């Protein structure tokens, strides 16, 4: 197990409001435009190269992330692999509308303790102040709409996100783009969590809502400088507190993706694999899993 620095008490609760809620719309605010050097690894053998790039799905304007080794990987790659293909990402909204509603409404004030409820209401009143409609939604779906509000408050633009930029570059070059999952599969990761786990995640997210923007700002700063240990600490501090969520959202997906990567290594070519940065760090991150399978893995940025 890689040693990692511990965060101050409470940081995990604050991160939850953004990290879990932004599976599809990744929250990543920064205090000002900056040049980023996100971490990237290369998995290679005699005739195959897989670049593993950690992404943020939404970014502030004027964040430059596609220079240096990343720019070279984009130019060299024959194809792009994302968590969701562009077609599946476009389908995610409708899939959310289908899966998110509860069978029977349950008031939010019956789900959250007083302190968490107060923070939830403050976030709901922020920005344009539009109601979350949480009474009618499953706990996991309430987290998603909370995360959307955090993103709005932080002035995040998915159009500046890494996946959007990569999709434009590969489409313009006529190179194929595919996904590791469907929108249905991705949202079902939350939908199928047991009730106690969903409630624990929602409570943590609500309790930390007031600090979500600041904490995700720290997450983005770590991503921008390619700080693997800091990313691991921030992400693990949150998900370790809810083991069932960690297993479903990170560990099991990473294992599936590592099997896909090992199989892809049997076919010649150069591939850029771009997934959320949290999937590439720690003992159960993709680089570590592929190394354990005997593949040659090198950090190249």
Please, could you describe this protein's structure?
This protein is an alpha/beta fold and 301 residues long. It has one domain. 49% of the residues lie in helices and 12% in strands. It contains 12 helices and 6 strands. The protein has helices spanning 11-19, 68-76, 86-99, 114-125, 139-153, 162-172, 183-191, 195-207, 212-224, 228-239, 243-264, 286-292; strands at 40-44, 48-55, 79-84, 177-181, 269-276, 296-299. The chain has a 6-stranded mixed β-sheet with strand order 4-3-5-2-1-6, with helices on both faces. Helix 1 crosses helix 10 (228-239), helix 3 runs parallel beside helix 7 (183-191) and helix 4 (114-125) packs across helix 8. The longest helix has 22 residues, at 243-264. It is globular, with a radius of gyration of 19 Å. Residues 1-15 and 20-31 have low confidence and may be disordered.
Low-confidence stretches: 1-15, 20-31
- From the alpha carbons, calculate the radius of gyration and give it in angstroms: 19 Å
What level of helicity do the residues show? Answer: 40-55%
Order of helices and strands: HEEHEHHHHEHHHHHEHE
Strand order, main sheet: write it out.
Answer: 4-3-5-2-1-6
Q: Give the distance, in angstroms, between the N- and C-terminal Cα atoms.
A: 22 Å
Number of strands: 6
């Amino acid at each position: 197990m890689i040693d990692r620095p511990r965060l101050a008490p409470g940081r995990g609760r604050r991160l939850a409001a953004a990290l879990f809620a932004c599976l599809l719309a990744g929250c990543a605010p920064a205090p000002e435009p900056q040049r980023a050097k996100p971490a990237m690894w290369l998995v290679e053998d005699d005739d195959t190269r897989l670049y593993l790039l950690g992404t943020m799905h939404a970014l502030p304007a004027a964040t430059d992330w596609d220079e240096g080794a990343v720019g070279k990987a984009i130019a060299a790659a024959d194809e792009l692999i994302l968590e969701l293909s562009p077609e599946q990402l476009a389908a995610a909204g409708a899939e959310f509308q289908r899966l998110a509603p509860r069978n029977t409404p349950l008031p939010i004030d019956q789900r959250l303790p007083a302190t968490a409820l107060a923070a939830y209401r403050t976030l709901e009143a922020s920005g344009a102040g539009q109601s979350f409609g949480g009474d009618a939604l499953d706990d996991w779906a309430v987290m998603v709409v909370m995360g959307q509000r955090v993103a709005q408050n932080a002035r995040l633009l998915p159009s500046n996100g890494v996946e959007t930029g990569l999709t434009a570059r590969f489409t313009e070059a006529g190179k194929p783009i595919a996904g590791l999952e469907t929108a249905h599969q991705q949202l079902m990761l939350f939908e199928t969590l047991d009730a106690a786990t969903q409630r624990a995640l929602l409570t943590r997210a609500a309790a930390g809502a007031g600090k979500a923007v600041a904490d995700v700002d720290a997450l983005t700063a770590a991503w921008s400088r390619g700080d693997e240990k800091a990313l691991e600490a921030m992400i693990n501090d949150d998900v370790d507190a809810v083991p069932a969520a960690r297993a479903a959202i990170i560990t099991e997906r990473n294992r599936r993706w590592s099997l896909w990567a090992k199989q892809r290594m049997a076919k010649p070519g150069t591939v850029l694999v771009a997934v959320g940065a949290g999937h590439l760090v720690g003992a159960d991150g993709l680089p570590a899993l592929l190394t354990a399978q005997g593949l040659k893995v090198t950090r190249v940025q």
